[in-house]
Amino acid sequence: MTAPSTFLGLPGRLTDGAKPRAVIFGIGHGTAYPAEDSSGYASAANTVRAASLDDAGFLEHWDFDLGGPLFDGKPVCCVDAGDIASTMHDNAGNRARIEARTREILAVPAVPILLGGDCSVTIPFLAGFADEGPVWVLQIDAHIDWRDEVHGEHHGYSSPMRRASEMAHVVGMVQVGLRSVGSARAGDVEAAQRYGSRFVTAREIHAQGIEAALRHIPEAAQVVVTLDFDSLDPSIMPGVAARTPGGLTYTQVIDLIAGLGRRARIAGFDLVEYYPPADIDNLSALTASRVLVNVIGTIVRQA
């Protein structure tokens, strides 16, 4: 069997022992709910990698999203370390592997970039920053993900921000792109507000621009970003499990990423909830690939 390609054809390691600025890794499974089949997410990372390959020969070309070549005229400084092995319903094992890999990358030191997977993978990803605090969390999502438990499981895809709020190294949270009924109960919203989470709805971004979100993040803060792809409007990101009209545009998302890179420091980034079975003409994979290019370009350009 042919080994899967890396994102943009990036190397798995840099030559001459050079240390990367960022390391991409993927995982197909996080914490599944009992009797729930999450296998549709297993191919997400490699589908995004495949969608990136048409641009693999153009790393030195001008990128108008970034205002220059991807690596800003400097040597390649991002690697793709491939996927962590995971097993659906091996919830504790999957979480342990995600946290361990995140810690390994931070020890390089490099910025970890995780390709999920449903957003339950965000919980162990954030846990991996325990020795790197204090950190802020910027969640870009249609939902607040503040359920304490679902079907007896406290680490599933409805609970990442509730679990993040319990981590001592997480000192603040901004939740952007919220819309529609979401999955939140009134008690979940009240708990998030008591914690001090800053809500920024999709309508606020449409009306006021990205500053509606960025103003809540302290300058020079270390920020871990979790980008749930259902934050984008389904007309450009149909490949998600929870399509919700009224989402953010591609330009709003990449402007938010670039603005954060100028205001603060992106310490880690996960991109989750791309669901290939729901995609249309590979549109979501292409959009996800372009968003990831912007993530890398922003990290390369930050101090």
Radius of gyration: 18 Å
Approximately what portion of the residues adopt beta-strand conformation?
A: 15-25%
Instruction: Count up the domains.
Output: 1
> Which regions are unreliable across 5 or more consecutive residues at pLDDT < 50?
none
What is the chains' assembly state? Answer: single chain
Q: Quickly give the structural class.
A: alpha/beta
End-to-end Cα distance, whole Å, is 41 Å
CATH evolutionary superfamily: Ureohydrolase domain
Overall geometry comes to globular
- Overall pLDDT score: 96
- What is the annotated CATH architecture? 3-Layer(aba) Sandwich
Strand order of the largest sheet: 2-1-3-8-7-4-5-6
Q: Your description of this structure?
A:
By secondary structure, the protein is α/β, with parallel strands linked by helices. The protein has one domain: Arginase, Chain A (3-Layer(aba) Sandwich). Helix content is 30%, strand content 17%. The protein has 9 helices and 8 strands. It has helices at 44-52, 91-106, 122-127, 160-165, 186-195, 202-208, 211-214, 250-263, 283-301, and strands at 22-26, 78-83, 111-115, 135-140, 170-178, 198-201, 222-228, 265-272. Strands 2-1-3-8-7-4-5-6 form an 8-stranded parallel sheet. Strand 1 (22-26), helix 1 (44-52) and strand 2 (78-83) form a beta-alpha-beta unit. Helix 1 (44-52) crosses helix 9 and helix 8 runs parallel beside helix 9. The longest helix has 19 residues, at 283-301. The mean pLDDT is 96.
Summary tags:
Arginase, Chain A; 9 helices; globular; 8 strands; 30% helix; alpha/beta; 303 residues
